[in-house]
Amino acid sequence: MKIATYNVNGVNGRLPVLLRWLEERQADVVVLQELKAAQENFPEKAIRDLGYDVVWHGQKSWNGVAMLSRVGDIQETRRGLPDDPDETQSRYIEAAVNGVLIGGLYLPNGNPRPGPKFEYKLRWFDRLIEHAASLLESELPVLLAGDFNVMPTEQDVYKPERWHDDALFAPEVRARFFELTGQGWTDALRTIHPDEIIYTFWDYFRNAYARNAGLRIDHLLLSPALTDRLVDAQVDHHVRGWEKTSDHAPVWIELSDKPSRRRRT
Prior knowledge:
Layout: E1 2-7, H1 15-25, E2 29-33, H2 44-48, E3 53-57, E4 65-69, E5 75-79, E6 92-97, E7 100-106, H3 116-137, E8 142-147, H4 171-181, E9 186-187, H5 188-192, E10 201-202, H6 208-211, E11 214-215, E12 218-222, H7 224-227, E13 230-235, E14 251-255
């Protein structure tokens, strides 16, 4: 089973790109972020016409998350994190699909730092950490996937010295990422590519994509019940080079039906 995450950066404006990639990659399950579409404006028909079931949590102009499946019905279990005091921001959707519980998330950017947006990011991250712990306690096969808006290490950012004041690279944010993975989650992309420079985001400015001046901020985290089923993890880097594309590239993993030896590519 192939599961992908993709910050589409406007699902309606970039629908041709999304549909082209869906047909090319043939991912079984996809979580999307940054829909930038009200609930009633999500392009449901176009998605279903490709053979996907779909659920989404929209928000006008900002945020928004969705989940697509072509391997069975999506059994939605939650929208939003527990005890979220600001339910107006559509940032989390969770569902069971084909035997895997998937949390699709869009963690706040947090800039400028310091400031209210940064404090909100930290609070949201804390709620995610708390909820993730409860998911691990279930001992179910669980995947957390999405745009985390954090570069965990200097290996995950082009010229890290330029990012020390940014909310995506702040020590408090990076510490929370490692607090999260320290619960027992496996960083799928880094497991398959432990020593490589590999990015998932390139700014639209300063010719960043052509220079490969990127960031790794889109992550797929596996619970222990899924870790031994990881076969592959890749970034569809070329999609970032398409016309009118998102500033993110899709990231995907391949899981075997049962524990297996991983394949490196």
